Amino acid sequence: MSSMYPGQQMHVQLPRGYNDTILSITQSTTPDPYVIFVNGVYYMTWTAGNRIEIWSADSLFNFESRCRKDSIWHPPPNQPYSGDLWAPELHSLNGTWYIYFAADDPAHGNKSHRMFVLTGPPCTTSPLDPSTWSFSGRLGGLPDTQWAIDGTVITLHNSLYFVYSGWPLDHPSTPDESKQELYIASMSSPTTCTSPPTRISTLDYAWEYSGSSGINEGPQFLSSPDGRWAGLVYSCAGSWTSDYKMGVLAYAGGDPLHASSWSKWREPLLTCARDGSPPYGPGHGNFVDVMGNGGREVWAVFHATDKRTGWEGRRARVMRVGWNECGPHMGRGECGVCWEEVFGEVLSRD
């Protein structure tokens, strides 16, 4: 599959050992980036709003300068899933490609956001042909009345689970729209959940709020290279602010459907730099394995912006994940110097 790209993987000179350098991998606006590496190709999905796009390249660090861009699905008009397509994720499950995304009914707006699924071709083939994708409808088994976004599929104990961000279920007829919590449900197939959702994270700390809005969203699975640590990294506070950040739910073992199997860290994993320098609002991405000089490395992919406020200019960035006896770390827990890549070279920003 790599023959579609101009050349082989380019060697990128990075500082030796762990450091907190951030690399920008897109110059275009790409909020909510999700990257998966399959068959020698890095595929990225992101929030385009009115369509689903897949970008693909043979390099993570020089991504946009080397990528192919394909629009693979547009929703028909006037449907419950025609508006505000958010945070699509491309997954390879049971030998088939799937895309999970949130969308709403334009007639009812944001409150109608629910999770939907596209089914694609076998994962031994390219996912870039629009004719190979079909709409599978709403993700089965989730509560009909619950606002739901940012869904992802994780595997624990050889079983599939769906984790997503939703409004509280305490009062489904009158949900508290100021709070987003994290929920998990078991799956019998890539298109169907089979257990009632369990809340595994709510708003516990002041740093998860922006004003009166308490937000837990964008959950992503993360595991250490040696397999000793596993958990979920989520984004919190307002994505429209510089305070957007990433927190951690460590998996303590046992049944993933029990809230007691998850333990929230008291401090964030990554925030913007304390000295006020850009980038701002790091969050909503995922984790991808990269083969470095010393073996397998885990890199975080996330969006951040050069502007202090607003959603404008959120671009995909990457930063290496470090490991210690407690689990993952990202340097001092704040964004380091951000480098820009141009024509395959990593250049230091002025």
UniProtKB/TrEMBL annotation:
One of its GO terms (biological process) is carbohydrate metabolic process. Keywords: Glycosidase, Hydrolase, Signal. Gene3D superfamilies: Glycosyl hydrolase domain, family 43. It comes from the Eukaryota. InterPro entries: Glyco_hydro_43, Glyco_hydro_beta-prop_sf. The record marks D150 as: Important for catalytic activity, responsible for pKa modulation of the active site Glu and correct orientation of both the proton donor and substrate. It holds the Pfam family Glyco_hydro_43. GO terms for molecular function: hydrolase activity, hydrolyzing O-glycosyl compounds. Belongs to the glycosyl hydrolase 43 family. This is Glycoside hydrolase family 43 protein. It comes from Lophiostoma macrostomum CBS 122681.
